[in-house]
Design brief:
It is a single chain. This protein is of the alpha/beta class. It has a single domain, classed as TIM Barrel (Alpha-Beta Barrel). The chain contains nine helices and eight strands. Strands 1-2-3-4-5-6-7-8 form an eight-stranded parallel beta sheet. Helix 3 links the parallel strand 3 and strand 4. Helix 1 runs parallel beside helix 8 and helix 5 packs parallel to helix 6. The radius of gyration is 18 Å and the shape is globular.
Length: about 280
Amino acid sequence: MIASPCARSEVIDAHHHLWRYSAAEYDWIDDSMATLHRDFLPTDLIAELANARIDGTVAVQARQSVEETRWLLELARDCEAIRGVVGWAPIATLDFEASLATLAADPKLVGLRHVVQAEPAGFLDSADFNRGIRAMRTAGLAYDLLIVDRQLEEAIRFVDQHPQQTFVLDHIAKPKIAAGEIEPWRSRMIDMSKRDNVCCKLSGLVTEDSWSRWSIESLRPYVDTVVGSFGVDRLIAGSDWPVCLVATNYAGWWQLLRDYFAAFSEDERAKIFGATAKSVYQLE
């Protein structure tokens, strides 16, 4: 069937979370983030999607447990808007391949992630973790790389060990936006972008800036850097909802991205706002 000339390309929020809140399980949500001290479930998500004109999503792990991954997969099966799940699995364990086979049997599982930003230096160099990443190739899953800016050199070494693996760099590697620091983050991001198997998520920026004083102008040098280095073909838009709520509302974040990319072509915007996410995560 030929699409209508007015048909709009699907918009995918490629990075959000869901949780049933407990202080013990989400101890990273401190008192400065009191707005997040509650449950965030698919009913909350659906209301946000409608308001911001988002068509589908990718739910991403927030706890490092297989139980949470299974829970997210259950939610995705019951919520049509959740097109895929980036879960957690014990990548560095000897029995990872066996557990992966079970999880990957669910078509909603599209990737895996580990909270590397909380790990000590050298974690990505470990033989056990790299063995697990190699095992992921048979499952065809993407790997979301969650790091902070100081870990970029280590991450580049890691990526270079797996040229056939698809990587998605979360939150543009969390530069020190609030401090106005752009180097050495910028140079290292340009280096990382030379790896064609790495895409970059435009997400999590407002929470790296001052929560009360951020602006498009304070974010612009960082967005300009990833647009110039990764190009429109390897950028993926995401919200990092509900974490973003400490600094902006859901629709406000999407409006900021739409304003920034307003002068780009329709085809370029379609890639950034959905098409690349659908390809990288093989979304149904």
